[in-house]
UniProtKB/TrEMBL annotation, chains A, B:
SUPFAM superfamilies per the UniProt record, alphabetical: PurM C-terminal domain-like (SSF56042), PurM N-terminal domain-like (SSF55326)
Pfam families, A to Z: AIRS, AIRS_C
PANTHER family: CARBAMOYL DEHYDRATASE HYPE (PTHR30303:SF0), HYDROGENASE ISOENZYMES FORMATION PROTEIN HYPE (PTHR30303)
BP term (GO), one: protein maturation
Name of the protein in question: Hydrogenase expression/formation protein HypE
Signal peptide (residue range): none
Length: 349, 349
């Protein structure tokens, strides 16, 4: 039944003839899929910008439009559920272009056998997260797949926001001289999930940082609109985010390793599992590339906001080594912070 | 880990403690999920209108916003792939509010082990379908799930369109006196899929009717804007669509069974599998509820369009039996055309 009309895949994507887990890891394999499969097939300049959301002009309105599929396991984890994650994740993708998120859609793929009470609890959390963020879930769809062809529930949310006139925040807008800020401690969401999966226990349980960031962004912009690029470091963690911006903007990024706030529990869990916190997913943090002269004002505004209390400057943008992220280590040396090929996997033996 | 905060499911959804296939069938069970789970959780008037798309006012723009998840098996079928289906399906949901579709997003859930060439072929077909319809795929997301937790690829598309000023086409706008039109033969998509699954062969293979309908709608509106409700009869088929409009508008619908165009191959395949063509899914047809005085003009415009060549009037809207669809049968009797509880399943022995 497969009729390719003579069309052939543009490049042998490394050596993989089939999809592997790493294609969804937010690293190099994910980027290859986009570059070799989706961009050539979909052919348009908006997609090619690879922002967290697309910027569209519709009549007199400037809209941000974004989508994200959520396949997290377990469905319920410390600090959240797949439902609030799906709402906040898409809100954050919109917020990273400076947009005010307004409306969300939700597509559910349910697996036969999912307890109705679990679906109800997830939907309830989605509704609560939307109300908390001031957005409205206006449209949706539900499909059911046979047992053994899903994982309880997968949710794809899409969102529409309005981008204020004149604002242009995008991954390719970072400039040498910019300071790089992070809004707080990294690694919490990923290690909360990983701890549950691996059965780790700590004195203080690790909780996901899942939160909507648009109000924090609005507060930052009100303090000083000279913000060039924003991204929430989800899959692939801080390292992937810094690399994506460095590459899109054609600039180098230098960070001070010791300046990156990492909670002791995250550090401990990472050590036990053999993971690097720089590559662990977050769901309620952002990285900002800000014009140097605006840095102090933006930082102060972040620290005055509940979701940016521990914001800090972690580095700067340089003209040297474009597309590369370099960290100054604790012992005075430097190391290249590369993107991973696939996913970071916990040490299993 | 499941903390319901004391919240309980609003009603025992029939006797099912878990999700069953019928919850995704577009019938009564699907409607119960929406009414008992999603509407109470998401609490807003726009969602409660239950249109194929939501109508939003953003600044001076009137937008339609819609989402649909696609889980069809097989991924490649006569007349299409899951890719063009995902593009045309969301375009059609937008078109059913009279919107001009502009932008699409796509969320991919890939199963480990999917051949890359299949993904590439599907993406290529999506791109081609989008270009053919004049819409742009502007943003996307890709996740990978472990082998045995998907079915090759699931795609969720969302779309944004612009609704012309003054237009109000919605499921609750049908009025007694309206004529009911269908744009062509029914049952092709569903029976093309079913024939492949069941290994049926016919002299002329059944092909999916998968097509974008927005241009047909624009043509109809240009002929006479007095169109009250539009819906593409996908899951649940013509019967579900007529019932949904009857219920939303609080009117009765009367159809002449013999007036509904059903191709001989569809009829034959349905007979072999013990299915009723009225409940079989379509992907390139629409049902229109049109003010009686506009009926002839709209019908003529449909017939002059390549996607409406076999359009015909199949019935009318009445004030009697609100919420109910009644068919006059070939032998002069009448029968109630109800919505199914779940899905129509082929006879397997």
């Amino acid at each position: 039944m497969i009729d390719l009309d003579g069309w052939v895949c543009p490049a042998p994507l490394r050596d993989y003839p089939t999809i592997v887990m790493g294609h969804g890891g937010g690293g190099k394999l994910s980027a290859e899929l986009v570059e070799h499969i989706f961009l050539p097939a979909f052919q348009n300049g908006t997609l090619a910008q690879l922002g967290d959301s697309a910027l569209l002009e519709v009549g007199a309105a400037r809209l941000a439009f974004s989508t994200d599929s959520f396949v997290v396991r377990p469905l319920f984890f410390p600090g959240g559920t797949i439902g609030d994650l799906a709402v906040n994740g898409t809100i954050n993708d919109l917020a990273m272009s400076g947009a005010q998120p307004l409306y969300l859609s939700a597509g559910f793929i349910l697996e036969e056998g999912l307890p109705i009470t679990q679906l109800a609890a997830i939907a309830e959390r989605m509704g609560a997260a939307a109300r908390n963020a001031g957005v409205t879930l206006v449209t949706g769809d539900t499909k059911v797949v046979d047992r053994g062809h899903g994982d309880g529930v997968y949710i794809t949310t899409s969102g529409i926001g309005v981008v204020p006139a004149g604002l242009r925040i995008a991954p390719d807008q970072a400039r040498p001289g910019d300071v790089v800020l992070v809004s707080g401690e990294i690694g919490l969401h990923g290690m909360a999930i990983m701890s549950v999966r691996e059965g780790l226990e700590f004195g203080t349980p690790l909780m996901s940082d899942c939160a909507p960031l648009h109000d924090l962004v609005a507060t930052m912009l009100a303090a000083n609109p000279n913000i060039h690029a924003l991204r929430d470091p989800t899959r692939g963690g801080l390292a992937a985010t810094l690399n994506e911006i460095a590459r899109a903007s054609g600039v180098g990024v230098r960070i001070i390793e010791a300046a990156v706030p990492i909670p002791a529990e995250v550090r401990a869990a990472c050590e036990m599992l053999g993971l690097d916190p720089f590559y662990v997913a977050n769901e309620g943090k952002l990285v900002a590339f800000v014009a140097r002269e605006a840095g102090e004002a933006v930082l102060a505004a972040m620290r005055a906001h509940p979701l940016g209390r521990n914001a800090t400057i972690i580095g700067e943008v340089v003209a040297e080594h474009p597309g590369m992220v370099v960290a100054r280590t604790g012992i005075g040396g430097t190391r290249v912070v590369d993107t991973l090929v696939g996913e970071q996997l916990p040490r299993i033996c």
